[in-house]
Amino acid sequence: MAKINTVKVTLTKSPIGALKNHKACVKGLGLRRMHQTVEVIDTPQNRGMINKASHLLTVDETK
What we know:
It is built from two helices and three strands, in the order βαβαβ. By secondary structure, it is α+β, with helices and mostly antiparallel strands. The longest helix is centred in the middle third of the chain and has 9 residues, at 20-28. It is globular, with a radius of gyration of 11 Å. The model has no long low-confidence stretch (mean pLDDT 95).
């Protein structure tokens, strides 16, 4: 069985003053509160959301 690549994403800055589409990306990644960490599958769609709101997030790539 193949191992699915995942990425751990943590919300480190508040999205209160961020643009509407940056807030939507944070919500789409499943992040609700500060310092919450979620593990998402490493897909081009998720990478795009991470890149869009990268100034609000910390990314830990797990291999």
